[in-house]
UniProtKB/TrEMBL annotation:
Location of region: Disordered: 174-198, 231-252
Keyword flag Lyase: no
Organism: Seriola lalandi dorsalis
Biased composition (Basic and acidic residues): 174-187
Source superkingdom: Eukaryota
Subcellular location per the Swiss-Prot or TrEMBL entry: Cytoplasm; Nucleus
Name of this chain's protein: DNA/RNA-binding protein KIN17
Job description of the protein: Involved in DNA replication and the cellular response to DNA damage. May participate in DNA replication factories and create a bridge between DNA replication and repair mediated by high molecular weight complexes. May play a role in illegitimate recombination and regulation of gene expression. May participate in mRNA processing. Binds, in vitro, to double-stranded DNA. Also shown to bind preferentially to curved DNA in vitro and in vivo. Binds via its C-terminal domain to RNA in vitro.
Keywords, sorted A to Z: Coiled coil, Cytoplasm, DNA damage, DNA recombination, DNA repair, DNA replication, DNA-binding, Metal-binding, Methylation, mRNA processing, Nucleus, RNA-binding, Stress response, Zinc, Zinc-finger
GO molecular function, one term: double-stranded DNA binding
Pfam families found in the cross-reference section: C2H2-zf_KIN17, KN17_SH3, SH3_KIN17_C, WH_KIN17
Amino acid sequence: MGKADFLSPKAISNRIKSKGLQKLRWYCQMCQKQCRDENGFKCHCMSESHQRQLLLASEDPTKFMDYFSDEFKSDFVELLRRRFGTKRVHNNIVYNEYISDREHVHMNSTQWETLTDFTKWLGREGLCKVDETPKGWYVQYIDRDPETIRRQEEQARKKKQELDDEERSARFIEEQVRRGRDSKETDETPVYTELKRENEEEKVAFNMGASSSVAGPSKSSSVLGASALKTAAASSTKRKDTSFGSDSRAEKKKKSALEEIIEMEEKKKKKQQSVRTDYWLQPNIVVKVVTKRLGEKYHKKKAVVTEVRENYTAVVRMIDSGDKLKLDQNHVETVIPAPGKKVLIVNGPYRDTEALLEGIDEKHFCATLTLDSGQHKGKRVDVAYEDFSKLA
């Protein structure tokens, strides 16, 4: 009986049935053939090709089992890493997603009889973190990629540096508070000084009150009274000026503790905000593509910025292939060349200044540059990694 025509209803029905997943008991792992029913599987087992595969497997069964086990482990772990990353997930969820592939390696051809045995083996080998709960076994992938480990170490180093800066700032504030408290106690202590006349030639006039005559005060007594009143008014004004000056000095001394630190921090922030911007792209610099949306062809590859549009978008030319791409600044990062090469400062107080790379400080994530242009030419400065890039 010949095969049905390609466009016949029976042929179309057979192709539709063969697309989906079939029953596991009708699958032959050695021949990698899926049968749709028991009769088809029986006919396949009696076929000559299946008998030859069985003879090959009988010669060295351990070799074939190890091969299928290694394939199953590799595909399972790769799916766990790519799909779930380092998240904690139920092992059955990962397995159901794994067997949705029609060409997957079946577990009955491996050295593990159940999914639980395979999960325990992953934990013993250190490939994943596994733990048993009332809901079943959970797995968590352990990322041992050198690039990931290096990135985690850099993040931990940055966090430690920020904590050290906070501790230094806290100690500085405590020292300023202590100094302010000591100066306040010193100011409140009264100081007694000797009474001295400022001007020896100044005449002292006294008003002795009303005279003995009943008719009224004389001319001389009125002059003395006027001069005494002027002297009293002048002395009171002087006392007020002196008291006002002392109050202002006291306020100034009180301000030198905490408010001085706050003002200093505000000035520092304003200065940093005035010289730093949230865009850094510049023409003729070398950048590295960090986005994965463009595929592996461009990922981690270097390019030269040929044009900057609206501060945040750049047209770049790939160094390897010469392709031109339009990328956002979030999709690229600066490139640090070898010491002795020329760089361009793209952000900060020395923006748009060419410099020479002298050395790299990996501990503090910065580099020492010698300015090669501008009014500060020849000056050595420390600049963060993200604030300069290699010149094309």
